[in-house]
């Protein structure tokens, strides 16, 4: 992971690390520490090579050779579920031996996964948008360029995988029920929370979420996958399944839900972790959360090394989980004398430990972070499981009974109103936007790390690391 992180930001040949590693092993092969360092440098160099190979592979196709703003005619297949907001559809289209482009078209007519289409228009190459690397952001998904409102004709329907097409069709029916029973703002929030589509949320709502520190509570993240796993596991137990049967069935539904919401890297990481923990319980083995997190991160980067730099969701999810794993028990222990209510103490400990590692990333990415996120998280998290349960139930019921669906939708709407109230309130509080130089985080974190390590050596924090 370190080699991929290095290669993500620095253009430096992996040969240097390979030569250094081989040199250390060859010259000082009787020194255990130097041999270990040499092996680490070799692995580091191989990781740099792997990142460079995958990056150059994505940019070596025919589309990459086209000039920016070229007039082209392409034929391809809609390879992912089209994402719709209020003024456009965004489609990923596979063309020219699986090279991909992002196409924006009007909301109507609507297109579907598996449509084979012909596109005529201007091909654009992504670049930097202020400080945002749009090229890297698209490239992590294998997308080489984009076209805005081209001429488009459907040549054939149903050219994709039949099972995937059925799942996407089912998802569209659920969205239709949501749109029918909720206001625009609440439907946009619910769709982002349980289905992962954030396009319908307006800029004002996104700004409020950022100021209130509740982006993680709305957009699909690891927390949502963990909540879903807990909900579905308890449901299977209520239905009478034995514990191991409930765990096994939960693994299947967790993996299906990760696919259902579009497989963002943060959800994939959480789905893998929870599934591995459930599997370990079935086999009667203990599993280290830290090792599971590292293994999940390694496998995701093995599949797509570009997410480490260009996928903010993966960065936030990984480091938030790392904070919870490392520091959650510490804060829970320190808060125990002051907060006797276990559920509240655990929410505070989880939020504090996650925020400590996430705040530097937010500050580096956006130039500011929110200090009210602790308060907003404590107020919102008790309502989030209810919103997820009702938000999944009433669209499903809508396929059978409109009346029962409406009743649950009204109840869900009440909790969404509470959520909107907290978002509006917390976004107006002082310190909802704090700009801090990155160096200040290191000046705070280094003493904190030394303090925790010293306490562990004294035997007070045996559970740390």
Secondary structure elements and their pairing?
Layout: H1 2-9, H2 15-27, H3 32-58, E1 70-78, E2 83-84, E3 89-95, E4 99-105, E5 116-123, E6 128-129, E7 132-133, H4 134-139, E8 143-148, E9 151-156, H5 162-181, H6 184-195, H7 203-212, H8 215-218, H9 222-238, H10 243-260, H11 265-283, H12 289-303, H13 307-310, H14 312-335, H15 342-366, H16 373-380, H17 384-397, H18 402-427, H19 438-457
Parallel strand pairs: 4-8
Antiparallel strand pairs: 1-3, 1-5, 2-3, 3-4, 5-9, 6-7
Helix pairs in contact: 1-3, 2-3, 5-6, 5-17, 7-18, 9-10, 9-11, 10-11, 11-12, 11-14, 12-14, 14-15, 15-16, 16-18, 17-18
Structure commentary:
This protein is α+β, with helices and mostly antiparallel strands. Strands 1, 2, 3, 4, 5, 8 and 9 form a 7-stranded mixed β-sheet that branches. Strands 6-7 form a two-stranded antiparallel sheet. The longest helix is centred in the first third of the chain and has 27 residues, at 32-58. The two termini are 19 Å apart. The protein is built from 19 helices and 9 strands. α1 crosses α3 and α16 packs antiparallel against α18 (402-427).
């Amino acid at each position: 992971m370190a080699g991929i992180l290095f290669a993500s930001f620095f253009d430096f040949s992996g040969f240097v690390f390979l030569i250094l590693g081989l040199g250390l092993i060859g010259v000082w092969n009787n020194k255990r520490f130097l041999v270990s360092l040499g092996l680490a440098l070799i692995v580091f160099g191989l990781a740099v090579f792997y990142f460079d190979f995958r990056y150059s592979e994505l940019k070596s196709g025919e589309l990459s050779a086209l000039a920016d703003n070229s007039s082209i005619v392409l034929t391809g297949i809609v390879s992912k579920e089209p994402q719709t907001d209020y003024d456009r559809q965004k489609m990923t289209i596979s063309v020219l031996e699986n090279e991909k482009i992002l196409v924006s078209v009007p909301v109507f007519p609507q297109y579907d996964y598996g449509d084979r289409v012909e596109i005529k228009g201007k091909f654009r190459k992504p670049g930097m948008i202020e400080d945002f690397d749009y090229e890297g952001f698209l490239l992590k998904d294998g997308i080489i360029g984009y076209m805005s409102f081209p001429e488009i004709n459907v040549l054939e329907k149903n050219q994709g995988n039949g099972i995937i097409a059925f799942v996407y069709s089912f998802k569209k029916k659920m969205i239709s029920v949501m749109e029918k029973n909720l206001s625009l703002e609440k439907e946009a929030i619910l769709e982002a929370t349980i289905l992962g589509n954030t396009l319908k949320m307006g800029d004002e709502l996104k700004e409020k979420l950022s100021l209130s520190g509740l982006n993680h509570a709305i957009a699909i993240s690891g927390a949502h996958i963990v909540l879903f796993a807990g909900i579905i596991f308890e449901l299977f137990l209520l239905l009478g399944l034995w514990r191991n049967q409930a765990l096994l069935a939960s693994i299947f539904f967790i993996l299906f839900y990760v696919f259902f919401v579009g497989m963002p890297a943060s959800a994939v990481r959480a789905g893998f972790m929870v599934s591995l923990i459930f599997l370990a319980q079935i086999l009667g083995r203990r599993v280290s959360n830290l090792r599971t997190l590292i293994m999940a991160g390694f496998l995701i980067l093995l599949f797509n090394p570009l997410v480490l730099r260009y996928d903010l969701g993966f960065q936030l999810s990984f480091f938030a989980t790392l904070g919870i794993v490392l520091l959650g028990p510490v804060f829970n222990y320190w808060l125990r004398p002051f907060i006797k209510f276990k559920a509240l103490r655990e929410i505070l400990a989880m939020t504090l430990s996650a925020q400590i590692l996430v705040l530097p990333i937010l500050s580096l990415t956006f130039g500011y972070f929110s200090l009210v996120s602790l308060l907003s998280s404590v107020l919102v998290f008790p309502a989030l499981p209810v919103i997820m349960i009702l938000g999944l139930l009433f669209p499903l019921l809508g396929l059978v009974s409109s009346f029962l669906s409406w009743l649950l939708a009204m109840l869900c709407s009440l909790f969404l109103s509470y959520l909107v109230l907290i978002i509006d309130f917390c976004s107006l509080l002082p310190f909802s936007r704090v700009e801090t130089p990155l160096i200040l985080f290191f000046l705070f974190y280094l003493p904190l790390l030394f303090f925790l390590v010293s306490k562990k050596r004294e035997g007070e924090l045996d559970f740390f690391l």
